[in-house]
Amino acid sequence: MEVIPPSWMNMWTEWQLRVLVLFSLSAQIILVVLGKRRKRVSGSWIRFTVWSAYLLADSIALMAAGIISNELGSVYDANGLVDPKHELVAFWAPILLLHLGGTDTITAYSLEDNELWKRHSLGLVIQAISTLYIWLTAWTSSSLSLLSFLMFIVGLMKYGERVRVLFLASEKTFRDSIPDIRTDNSKIMEKCKLKQWEGHHLTKHLVFEVEVPDLSTNKPLNDVHPDADELLEANRLLEMVKRLFADFIISSQDRDVSVKIFQELSGLQAFKVIDIELGFIYDFLYTKANAIYSRLGIALRIIAIFIISIVLVLFLNLKERHHHSRIDVIITLVLLVVALFMEFYAFRELLISDQTAYWLIKNKKTTFLEVINRTLRSKAIKKKRWSNSIGQFSLLSLALSKKTLPRYGILQILGIDEMLEIHLAKKKMKKENLESQPYDIPQEHSIDIQYLIFLGIRDIVRESPELSGTKLEDLYGLRGGRTLEKFQRRDLSWSVELEFDQSILIWHLATEICYFKDFISPNSIHAPANKKSGEREPKEERSEKGLLRQRCNYLSRYMLYLLVKHPNMLPIGMARIKFRTFTLRSETSLKNILANQLNTLN
């Protein structure tokens, strides 16, 4: 008895290559459209979609290329000539090589993917040889063979560029690319010491590198680009930010310069500078930015657009096109049109990027920047650089809404126990309409949190203007110690002497209890947003207290969110295990408290 009917098998044999090629094209479209959006969209749907497309893209392209290579045994007909069907199918091989080169918007889904550059180097060699073998085997004197070679050149450029970008973004290469800290000149230091011994008073001065604006026009830079000042500041501090991402120390000079710069900025400007810096780092590590923003990168894109355009035009005018399958011809046209569209889209993204805007401002080409803003960047200029939301995690909400999962041991082995707990807790809280904020739902109050953080850091700098060396290290270890000293609660100092993850849990639980003990409903807080800064400004004392409590609660839940969902972002070890234990204990304690209250009422 046959499980699969022969007619189905024949249909799959005939259509499998076409389906795989279209799937490969679909994966490329998803990565082009959504690859870079994940840095400013926090939804799980986009992460899953991009993750799936990223993992499947290479596998599908390799499988399709393997099928093409396998079918070359029947490439010749009875007369010893190349079968027109296989000739057109062989034309798809260099297009699949182009797909393996990836898109400009994403080259790595995670940092670990950058470490696979050696594997991709080997893959480049193997696929290049395989594509050449397919091309030579299906070679005829027709124009289609020449077009195949032109597409092979484009695919080879793209795949080679991907390998180079992965290599540059790998941990060792990234760390090696960062210059050493500039040390003070020994001769100058000797002269300074001699002057001090002679009784002279020496004063340290900070030297800033200032970008010279384009003075040939009467327009201020912010009229040319709304974030021009922030772009210049972000690029000035970019090398220092790279050092932080590489786990290097920063020099005292860099630290003093950054403090001086941020003292002159408002909270909104400061976080905009940080947004731009993080965007640059993201592009360096996860996209083809290392290759794009150079003369060679721009030249390769122009060459790719030129070649694909020529191939498309010549293919449309091929006389032999009518000898091939109509479906295969349509698929080929779709492949070429979409490839050309993706190249134009990538070039447009290059023109409207922050890196291009900075280069044009720096090189005093603001007229060209104005043209870009008017024609291409009208909508893109309003795009947010990140999700403008912060993840939230409430321990009390979890304990009160948690459901016992059936077959918990099996779910734990499969690694989906926590995911199901989150889903059921969210569903229960929504059904019961709890007053607490939704579990693990981003809150659209990021400006309030930014304002609170900026004020806190600014107060620290103003209170301790001479922060350096051990003084700065001591400040890092204070955690909530400054708050306890301010309100004279040294009896609670034990809470900041615990391990960092335990301190987060203790302070989060205390914040939750205090927040609901003197609860002020968010609906009763009258604090309209400032039109310029975006910060909410309370109108009366109750609204001011409620707003401050709300900000503190958001920040507390965000810290717990990092502890639970992204522990690698915190300097801790066994955070997830300790959190699981703490959650179970908290749940038991809350149930006992509620049971005692019910018994008292009865």
Automatic annotation (TrEMBL):
One Pfam family this sequence matches: DUF4220
Superkingdom per UniProt: Eukaryota
Chain ranges passing through the membrane: 15-34, 46-69, 89-111, 132-157, 292-315, 327-347
InterPro entries (UniProt xref): DUF4220
Keywords: Membrane, Transmembrane, Transmembrane helix
Residue span(s) of domain DUF4220: 51-397
PANTHER family referenced in this protein's UniProt entry, alphabetically: OS01G0798800 PROTEIN-RELATED
Protein name: DUF4220 domain-containing protein
Species assigned in the record: Quercus suber
